[in-house]
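Batch manifest, entry 17 of 40.
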Amino acid sequence: MRITELRKKIGKTDLYIKDLKIESGLIHGLVGPNGCGKTTLLKLIMGITGPDSGHIDYEGLKPSDITMMSQRPYLMHANVYDNIVYPLKIRGMKIDQSEIDCLMERTGLLQIKDQYAGSLSSGERQKLSFLRAVVFRPKMILMDETMSNLDQDSEELFKEIIRERHDEDGSTWLIVSHQWDAMNELFDKVHHMDKGRIV
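Output type: structure tokens
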């Protein structure tokens, strides 16, 4: 993915990305202080908001190849299981029940798969959002502070699954995180942002 001359102004955020190459098949970190434009950049890549000017070359990636996890995930008004398999259903993909059960077991969600998603704790919501994002094996995954509400064991589990999926699928990851010390070992490449610019 190549981003050139991309500009977006929202409130106090004045984002301008002159030239950024997000190499495919790598785990990228996106770090910087609050308000520097990290989330705005992810929303532009995802198509949630449009740029004021500039261009994003997806280099063959389709919208259905990309997914995004936010810090406060939106959950469907359904149970845990139905939330997880939804991306498979809308893409007409086969549901591999053993794989889904394995993912739910690893994250502690299997025992509550019939529970209403809206009743989950913040940590459980993040786990659900994470599984829903990886279950259809997208080519590019955007994570916006998704691990901020996790305990250390869950954080290590997420990193383990990220590495597994990356190695298996050659997927591209762009991960926003303030937890530099904890996350640095995961990244192949790190992009530092400040005041709406890649520095």
